[in-house]
Structures are given as C-alpha cells and as structure tokens.
Amino acid sequence: MHGVYIYPLDKVSINESYSSSTYSKRVCSVESLETSTNTSADSAYDQAPMIPSSSPAIRPTTLLEEAGTFRGTDVTQATLTPAGALLRLNTYSSALLIPEGAIPKHQRHSVVLSVVRDDKHHVPVPTGPRSTYLSPVVFCGPVDTKVNKPFVMQLPHCAENLSNWAFSLYSAPDNVTPWCKVVTIGEETINTPALVQIDKRYAYVLTEAFGKYVLVGESATDIQERVACKKLRLFICGPSTVPEFSDVSLRIYIVEDNPGAEERCRHCEQEIGGVVIGRSSVLYFADVGQGLVIDMQCVGGWRTKCSSERQTIPFSHVWNSNSTALHCSFTLCRTEHDKCDFKIAVQASQDLGSLEQLGALGTPPATLSISSFVPMSKDGHCQHSSSSFETMTICSVGSGTGPDHTNVLATDRFRLSKDVKRKLCRCLDPPTQKRNDWRMLAAHLNVDRYLTYFATRPSPTDQILDLWECRNRELNALQQLIEICRTMERPDAVAILEQIQPAPWV
C-alpha cells in the first residue's frame, strides 16, 4: 500500500482511508516574519513570548498578522540596547547573539528570533534536485534593523559526516522576496557578506543582515564524488484513545533529526485532534536516489487494513521535502474485539538494493514500537534521549565528551564585557612574529577555516570572541579560554581573563 505524503498536514480525518497512489501538497497558515521597532521594554535582556499586538505592521506579510498562531516555543523577543542581546529558542536549539556595541548609544530596538514552519507565501529555496534542507528556517528581525558589527546566529543541523557535504546558506528578507544564496562553504571571497562556521551539530552564521536563513546541502564533489547522509527521525501519531469499533489511522512523520522535530509533529496533529505517541531511533538517509521503506507489524487483535504492511516513499519526497512535515498513513482495523493487548512495531530503512559501496555507511534501520495510545511526555529532557541533542550548545572546544545538562550556563548575560574584549583585542589584534596573535586563537578555537573574513574586520579578535561567546556556553568555557591563551604564550591575555575568573587554586 502506498501512502499519502503531505507538505505539511492540514485537515485529515483521524480515520481517513487513503487511496493507493495519491500524493498531495498542502500548506498550513502563514507564519510571517516581521515586526516593527518597539522601545517600551526596560532591559537589554527582556524576554517576551509573543510580539505585542499593538505593534504596527511594516509589510503586507508580517509576523503580526498571524501572531495568534505562534506559541512561546516558536518565537522570542528582546529589547536590543548598546549592551547587546542574546535570544534563545531552547526547544529548537537556535540562538541569536547581538554583541555589545552593535548599535549606537541611546538607541533601543525590539528584535525577534523565530522558527518559520511554513507560510502561505511559500517561496522555495532555488536549490538543485539533490539538495536538501539541513536546518529549520529561522528568522531574525526586523529586517531593517541596522547594526555596525556582525551578529551570530546558531542553527542546528542534521548532517552526518561533514566532510561528505557541500553546505550552502540561503537567505530571504521576507515571505515574498525570492531566496538567494549567501555563500557556499569553501567558495568565500573577500566580498562574501557572511561567515558560516559548521560544527558537528550546529552551524554558526556571522552576518549583519537580518531576515530568513536556512542551511542546505548536497553531496560534495570537490575531490571525488561523496555520498552525503542526513539524520532523520520518525514520529508516529494517532488518536489519544483507541476507538472501540471504528478503524484507526496512524500517521508516520519523517522529519530532520533537529531539536524541535517532535514539536513540529505535535503542532500538525493539533490541527486534527491527534497526538504524538511514539518516536523512532535515528534514521540515516543517504543521497543515493533510493526510497524509504516502512514496515509495520501489528499484534493483539489488529491488522493493517490493506493487504500489505509495507509502504515505500520515493527518495525525492524525503530528500527534497523542503523542511516540511512529511508523513504517510496506515489504517488499522480490529480482528478480535475481545483482545486489548494492542502493540505495533515499525521499521524504516532506505532501500539500498545492490549498492554495495554503501555498506560502509553502516546504517541500521530506524525502529519504534508502541503498546498504547498514551501521548508522549513533553518533558524536554527525554525528547531527544537517543539523539545527539541534549542541550542547545555544543561542547567547549577541546572537550571530548558529550553535552551535559548540568554544565551549561543558564544566564543570557555575556561572559566577556565590552571592556574585557577591548583589552583582549589590543593584545591579540597586532600581528606577532611568533603568530601567537588572533590567528593562533582562531586555530585553537577551530574557526580558522577562512581567516580572510576575520582579517577584513576592524578587529579580528572581536569577531572571534563573539563567535566563541555563542559556541561555548558551558560553565568551564572561560577557564578553557584561559588555558588556550596560556598555551599561546600570551600571559597578558591570561591576566585579563583571570580578572573575571579567579585561578582555580585560589
């Protein structure tokens, strides 16, 4: 039986039966993007879950139009002052760091960070047939906000084995303007308007332009053709209680394994009264042109209504899903009404056929099983229990262990004040004969792939430290930065940093 694949789900009957070969694309309501300046808040770090309804719209398609469709997890707002601002969407592990001194004295702006699930003016990213979305679409704005130094935006991504990917960053100012490519990693020039730092699980964008951003990728072909692989996850959804006599429709969503994946599925299910009842292990999906095979087994007096318990989703429907919530459906019917030990098992794998060269991928099938219709817990600590995401930050540079819930700085304040950064810039900006200047600092922090970007800035050290501030939110990150400066044989920089963090033996 083939399924219905929806981009994304809007209105589907809980017990709807699907025709054998129907595909459809549907679009949810707009999640527009912009807001005007608001100067009413009192703190540089004020957080608000929603955009004030009194803000005037500045474009035909604005965030304000559909403000009621947003939830607190999808958007956050802060007042930007010369002291800077740090906005975070913890559910989606996205962040926006606007450094101190980015706007002139006495100015105040209302800025917003939001995740864009979809919109009625959808303009697809003009990528190739083998390109795929790797991050959520994130908006920061208003787009007419002017800053005099780059800000840093953190985007999670689901790319596996980074060396096999060619990454590109795309941007658009609003819902109606076409997307344009900002940069392809490795093809930067002195005029490139942004730097993209790709870490294992996050991308960091340094730019001065507000708007929509998304990270896309395809298999790298620079030296030899490689096979890109991304991480997906399956969520199974259905009714919150088992109907006694009617059939049951179970929907399976296949989404990028980024933070907030479960939240996206839950939002789609809210439209039809369904709930998320199960989550699979990680599914590794490779750029090989082969589709996704989903097998479902039922026991306990249930069976799939169609003769087949297998569905195959074409490769392009998974790889080119444009970050929407892809799903298929199985309809179950009772075989024995006196039994209630309901249990189903789902296994999903890519049909690699005879592609023996992919054996090295070692990609086990994704599996999930459920034995009840109880909704999954919304406890954030278990939403990604078997995923790479446990917190919104990566480990500090040099740490070989995974992220730790108890080792992350909870505050939205900056580690380094403007005064401390100014002193460090005076130390490390001037080139030295030993090269133990900002260039060595970039190397130790693993951000030296494209030094030209930093070199063209008024203060290379300042930009490197802004990126460090966003990448390293662990409690011990400052001490690690001190150790790096000590390794660089820069006691002057060590002394400056130890003024704000006493030596551990004190």
TrEMBL record:
Signal peptide limits: none
Entry's localization field: Membrane
Keyword annotations from UniProtKB, A to Z: Membrane, Transmembrane, Transmembrane helix
The family this protein is said to belong to: Belongs to the unc-5 family.
Main location: membrane
Designated name of the protein: Netrin receptor UNC5
Species annotation: Anopheles dirus
Coiled coil: none
